[in-house]
Amino acid sequence: MTCRLYIEDELIPGSSIELPADQEHYLRSVMRLGAGDPVILFNGSGGEYHAVVKSLARGETTLAIESFSEVSREMACRIHIVQAACRSEKIDSILQKGTELGAASFHIMRSERTALKLDGIKLNRRMDRWQKIIIEAAEQSQRTIVPAITWHEKLSDTPAHGLCYTLHPATETSWANEKPNMLAADEITLAIGPEGGWSDRDIETLKASGFANLTFGPRIMRTETAAPALLAAIGSLIDS
Asked: Is the pLDDT of residue 240 over 70?
């Protein structure tokens, strides 16, 4: 499989770019590439750029961009994940698997039962880490966009795009009944509760923002399982 790299800058066929130290190390020491080897680049604005290694040396790695390919591997329906903040390693997993499965954006936010508290420098560092996880997952899964990630302090700030569902076991609205609506939707927002579940106040806040409760079978999933499971299920409907 050809190595893929996310480049934040503008990419122009016929031009050359120099790679930063971390990407240079990845190509040289991990992928063991050399001059003339192909590399696929993307910058999140759609499509892919085909490039070759011109030089690969410590402190000086240059790629020549040869052509652009108008390819997309994104879902026809944009799916946004609203995830109540939980333990950091669980969020890491949600972002990685969610990106691989096609999520368009992630919104991590505090809820009544959220224990994770982030602000200032600590929040900035965590956001940098989460962004890196998303980029690496997009590179690996051959995405042509990089999902956005946002931190919200208030549940009332929850974005509500398209069809909006709160995963909750106590409801008559079932996955089976909602599948036709999901198939016809351009956007879906899924709200996933923290490890202790949504509180009654949380549910009322989400309801006021336009979210309907949704049950996804008789079993209760862990918070880090729910978003990937729903993304995979919706993807199987849309991509089939």
From this structure: no
